[in-house]
Structures
1.
Amino acid sequence: MKPAGSGPRVGPRTHDDGGRRPVFSLREATARDAEALTALRRRCQVQTYGPLFGRQYVRSIQSAPSGAPDEYPAGQAGAEDRGHIAEPSTRVVLAHDRDGEPVGFAIAADGPADWEYGLVGDQEPCRELVSLYTVDAVHGTGLGARLLETVLDDRSAAEPVYLWVMEGNDRAVAFYRKHGFVPLEDGLPCEGAWAGQRTFRMRRG
């Protein structure tokens, strides 16, 4: 495993194939991006989980007390994402469209996180894909694959990577399967603001 934080920094990267597909630029997030990152996360949560689990569920995960992963109360908007950006061993990659609007992001960190201990048995240190979201408007453009590749490009392709995904999010599961991830075990009940649904791990490598 490479030392934490030793990978190349992500500068602006653009993609243009002659106008046939949208142009996106990818770069590593800075502290100035924290509020925009959180706003983008909340937008993606509405678009992703609203149709699957309902608006009330989305309101729950977006207004819960701080402390659990990906929960952002209005009074502390951006706190979790500022922490991700500030942590040297964590990579946060933002994608913007040709107009400069944020349309996707990915976060990778050294796992397992504190909240994971005791949930499953095989919790050796391993890279975790903490988040990967794109807005609905760019689904099918290949941006998700580019974000996945970029946020992990400081690691060996053979190095294990895992993630958590919600049961019922079939689109995400199919995407991760396409990129080599396989389920590790049966789903576990979510806790806290996420209670009422189930989640499970996927891993590759």
2.
Amino acid sequence: MSSLIVVLTLFFLYATYRHWSQRSRFQIENKQSVLEGDNSFMDPKKSDLPGYAILETAKGSITVELFKDSSPEVVDQFLDLCQRGHFDGMLFRHVIKHYVIQAGDSDKLGAAEDWTLKGKHYSQLDTSLKHEAFMLGTSKAKHDKRGFELFITTAPIPDLNEKLIVFGKVVKGEDVVQVTSKLQFLSM
């Protein structure tokens, strides 16, 4: 009888943990990075990751479609960082007009690990989508393990195809990206 109680208690704890861990993936924890679902998580045959993210900047909102089918690990980690508030107040600190805007805080030691290569062989990452205008990407090879780099291209840039992993595309707010590309720094 006591072993049955122990088993039921363990089952209850496990079920509660699964429920809360799944719920926390979709729960909005801050107003700086708001995640929206696209109802694909309602279909158990599809990935349970939200299909869109909204980046709130001082100049307006940027809505990005996340490529969860082609880069599920990258999208999952990006969403996890959003929920933990990693991008709150982060600056687009590297802005090159007609090229790219880059956000990232390499001064936060341990803020994010090199998750783009964790558990993956480098050649498996070479299938990344190409860098057209308004693509969202991150570095393929971060060796310093000090922070997360986020790139949004403002023009087609074939030079970045082998250097960055594309995991999203701006679908709304292209004007905000263009305005940002003309500024020196902009806070998210």
3.
Amino acid sequence: MDKRIGVMIVDDSAFMRKTISDMVEASSELYVAGKARNGLDALEKIKRLKPDVVTLDIEMPKLDGLDTLRRMMEECPTPVMMISNGAESTLEAFDIGAVDFVVKEDLVKEVEGGKLINFHQRITAAANAKLPVSSVTSESKKEERQVELAKEKEAFRQKQKMSMIVIGSSTGGPAALQKILTRFPEDFPLPILIIQHMPPGFTKPLAERFNSLCHICVKEAEHNEKMEPGTAYVAPAGLQTAVQEIEGHYQIKLKISAPVETLYKPSVDVALLSIAPIVKDKLLAVILTGMGDDGLRGCKRVKQAGGTVLSESEETCIVYGMPKVVYEAGLADKQIPLYDVYDQMIDYL
């Protein structure tokens, strides 16, 4: 029995099918389980060949990527990595059940540069990922939350001990973040900084999407912006986000380079290393699903400064990487499933 990871490639472009196929075959741990040029063809082959993971193009004839994904999640649930250039369609794919995505142009650049390790790591992580539950928040569900939110508002006023929340996430993060952020009431008394690994051009649409669903304000962070209570700031992709304390308030600083070596822009480590010394024991850091170890160095600094760290448990992580290293290093005050993260955060306020 083949123990390698079987990859189904779905793309209407013969060039992209060949490109992804070559990338897959370059790894001894992966193999091409099959190829399809449209969604209908893909659904039939996925049911028959049962691949471990599917790379899925968005724009295809007969049945496009999003409709294919919807039917897959209903008929033959399989981990999916979207191949896309569009932020809006990619974010919708996360709502439906995709676990990760790769920008098509970046994929071609990796091939041309001979740097395939990132793709191989991500496709492997996607194959081993747990399928997320759809995170679409309906208007009726938002209305059902009004009574709970009203009860929580008074509790916030009485309990507030923290000054800032920082949330770090990567693979599987958008869906996890949406589940948490939609629970905050409009007058939440703290600023929230979100460090989500994403390529340039995707963090602003992500913030806008969250803002349309949430009671609090959610926006992409801007340089020299004063952090306000009841606002969640999404760190922009392609830059490093730090925070300084100026005249008694916290101010966002966007930088091209980082004071520490890191693979990520934005980096959870960079943000926490700048914030922990100034917020100290009033900082709550939350590490959610994601591949790699970004956040480990930052959480060490948070604990040294007297702050609190929560990490998502393996039970609900799409990829149990970032939270795992934090927990195994003994840095997490608590390790909890996603559905308990919000309540635990409130307990620490």
